[in-house]
Write a structure and sequence with these properties.
339 residues, alpha/beta, Rossmann fold, globular, binds thiamine diphosphate, binds magnesium ion, PDH_E1_Alpha_Subunit, thiamine pyrophosphate, DH_E1, THDP-binding
Length: 339
């Protein structure tokens, strides 16, 4: 673990807890899906916790993020509550999007989370637009755009990087390179280095170990401060790994990645175990305290699942609520032809 910035015990504790909370959330979401209690599809964030937590810990509630199809970790790290998240996954009325978004479309505006997006690369324009609006309105919030390595194949990224660099927008493009796009290794589809692509637009680019929460946090803190001074945009490539298959039902992963590779990331490179060990070595937390935190969070997640399972579905009268910008807009859009 690298720790070049001064954190206090509270900071360390919050970062550790947030990583454990993401893992606990995903373990429960996985179980819900496997026991056929959850509709739709979901993509687990387990293994990538240090990225979301290291980055979001450097942001305020006013700072914005945009997220991806693998976005539960971003939501939790940016302050979302378990109950409303599980309700959203289960299509319940108390979900963040009143149950209409599901796993891949959670937004939480109260914490600056502009939303996840099932369209790979889809949030790049939204993040850049948010940064453009901040600049024009003289607001000093920063936007972090999370996306995967596969999304760097989308033409939109090159369009928004050009604009962001020209107009010096306060946006950080954070690429979570987990080594795979669905079932294909990144090195089989991406020529050259990702940082060089950002540098071609004159954007300062960085690579960081995405399993080291302190390294991620340290770098992001510096870049957020620089963004606020008008020195953005920036690009960060975070090397990480997803523990599950591409999605929860992906049973083919034995064919595209080896068990040895998986085992190495899940043991010696695990971001939570390593941070826990470091906290113990530095005498910040004892082994017993770490176990107590884990148990407490596990219980919190299980109680939230129970709550969501028993929560009501939205009333059918809400079926077209929040689907369009407004009923008048919807009628215009439909040419007034709604019966
Ligand atoms: C525009 C678009 N093309 C294809 C897909 C299908 N798809 C969903 S996830 C994914 C791979 C994304 O890989 P990456 O960006 O590396 O994210 P990761 O799944 O590894 O987190 C693809 C191709 C999609 N959802 N949207
Ligand atoms: Mg990927």
């Amino acid at each position: 673990m690298s720790d070049t910035r001064t954190h206090n015990t509270e900071d360390y504790l919050r970062m550790y807890k947030q990583m454990v909370r993401i893992r606990a959330f995903e373990d429960n979401a996985n179980q819900l899906y496997l026991s056929a209690k959850m509709p739709g599809l979901t993509h687990m964030y387990s293994g990538q916790e240090a990225v979301a937590v290291g980055i979001c810990e450097a942001l305020t509630d006013e700072d914005r993020i945009t997220s991806t199809h693998r976005g539960h970790g971003h939501c939790v790290a940016k302050g979302a509550e378990f109950k409303a998240m599980f309700c959203e996954l289960l299509g319940k009325a108390e979900g963040y999007c009143r149950g209409k978004g599901g796993s891949m479309h959670i937004a939480d505006q109260s914490h600056g989370n502009l939303g996840a997006n099932a369209i790979v690369g889809g949030s790049m324009g939204i993040a850049t637009g948010a940064a453009l609006s901040a600049k024009h309105l003289g607001q000093d919030f920063v936007t972090v755009c999370f996306f995967g390595d596969g999304a760097t194949a989308q033409g939109l990224w090159y369009e928004v990087m050009n604009m962001a660099a020209l107009w010096k927008l306060p946006v950080i493009y954070a690429c979570e390179n987990n080594g795979y796009s669905e079932y294909t290794k990144t090195e089989e589809i991406a020529a050259g280095s990702l940082t060089a692509r950002a540098e071609a637009f004159g954007i300062e680019a960085f690579e960081v170990d995405g399993q080291d929460v302190l390294a991620v946090n340290d770098l992001t803190t510096q870049l957020v401060e620089r963004c606020r001074k008008g020195e953005g945009p920036f690009f960060i490539e975070l090397k990480t790994y997803r523990y599950h298959g591409h999605h929860v039902g992906d049973i083919n992963r034995d064919y595209y990645r080896s068990k040895d590779e998986e085992a190495e990331w899940k043991t010696v490179r695990d971001p939570i175990t390593n941070f826990g060990k470091w906290l113990e070595d530095e005498k910040i937390l004892s082994a017993d305290e770490l176990v107590a935190i884990n148990n407490e969070i596990k219980a919190e997640a299980e109680a939230a699942v129970e709550y969501a399972l028993n929560a009501p579905y939205p009333d059918t009268s809400e079926v077209d609520m929040h689907v369009f910008a407004g009923v008048d807009h919807a009628l215009d859009y439909l040419g007034g032809a709604r019966g």
